């Protein structure tokens, strides 16, 4: 397969297509609250930098977006992503001294929770009587650790969590986040690990009520979600350090597509990963070449996100040093 076959996937989008998407999207229910939270959070980081400590802020997107099929949504199309990459990366960014805006799909993996069972409430706690809640001794250390680190990040003002479910919510919040981070210049970073829908049902053509099965087989025509990455780089976050991800299941096309995304969307880095090996290794693709990053197998609980974030932080430092203020 040659590169021309990929052109349907990596494409330019006109500003009018993007405008049309936002105009037809149902407005965010909590837009004012989100704006306020972003303003406070980013403002707090700017204050820190005035005291001589330049705070770097990264927006980590995580989890998959849904595409509703009905306005009063009963059914939807989903995009695969457990949110593990985003949640683990958030922890390493916090460790490296970044403030993190964690834009995540509701119900997906959360930072600091990887050592807790999937159903933490039911498995971690005991209720010997109505007034007593106890942590099961086998989980005590993990719970104390998770709660303590989470609380420290939230109350210390280094972690802001913003949830989304649909593609409409995701893109509106991402835009709002980018605009709110504009003044941070090169200290801002975007780490776009979310799995974003490529096709959707435009809101105005969507049926209001639950689609009835008695009408027979369902014919669906999905419109293409405009690729936001070009406008993102050009208009929303022109000075930020931008990393996008490329997920494929066919390794033969992975690097070529990552390289194409790097050039087409003018990204600083594209992290390429194959679905079945994504927890073991990723390939960082930049204008100066590519580099394989692997999980440290000799380390118990070693995660690929640890060396990945190390490389990214050091590339971001070079970017900041070489950027004009
Ligand atoms: O969550 P995990 O289970 O740990 O898995 C992590 C992951 C595999 C989901 C993650 O590492 C990953 O690869 N995320 C990106 C997956 C993806 O959607 O790739 P894509 O080829 O569809 O999109 C490429 C880039 O374009 C993404 O950065 C996306 O944010 C962006 N995009 C996509 C569609 C669209 N309409 N607009 C966009 O801007």
UniProtKB/TrEMBL annotation:
Belongs to the PPC synthetase family. Gene3D superfamilies: CoaB-like. GO terms for molecular function: phosphopantothenate--cysteine ligase activity. This is Membrane traffic protein. Residues 181-299 form the DNA/pantothenate metabolism flavoprotein C-terminal domain. Keywords: Coenzyme A biosynthesis. Pathway: Cofactor biosynthesis; coenzyme A biosynthesis; CoA from (R)-pantothenate: step 2/5. One of its GO terms (biological process) is coenzyme A biosynthetic process. InterPro entries: CoaB-like_sf, DNA/pantothenate-metab_flavo_C. It comes from the Eukaryota.
